[in-house]
Amino acid sequence: MMNFRISILSLILINNLSCEHGCTPLMIASLRGHIEAVRVLIECGANVNLQITMATH
């Protein structure tokens, strides 16, 4: 089952911005405490050093 999840997640652009605030799936998973999701995202190549810049309006 784990290999299947990793294969599917590898097809997704993991580092794509996923919300209006510019958070990646890794950022969202870590903020919400989803440790297993964080582990899988990192295994699939999520950029752990990616930062967002908050725009000021």
Q: Could you characterize the architecture of this molecule?
A:
- It is a single chain.
- By secondary structure, the chain is mostly helical.
- It has one domain (2-43).
- 46% of the residues lie in helices and 0% in strands.
- It has three helices and no strands.
- It has helices at residues 2-11, 25-31, 35-43.
- α2 runs antiparallel to α3 (35-43).
- The model has no long low-confidence stretch (mean pLDDT 77).
Major sheet details: none
Strand content: under 5%
| Secondary structural class | mainly alpha
What would the principal axes of the Cα set say about the shape?
Answer: globular
**How many β-strand stretches?**
0
Q: What is the count of DSSP helices, taking H or I runs of 4+ residues?
A: 3
Order of helices and strands: HHH
The Cα radius of gyration reads 12 Å
Our measurement of the CA-to-CA distance between the termini, rounded to an integer number of angstroms, reads: 45 Å
In helices, the fraction of residues equals 40-55%
Tell me, rounded to a whole number, the average pLDDT.
77
- The stretches of 5 or more residues where confidence is low (pLDDT under 50) are none
- How many domains make up the 3D coordinates? 1
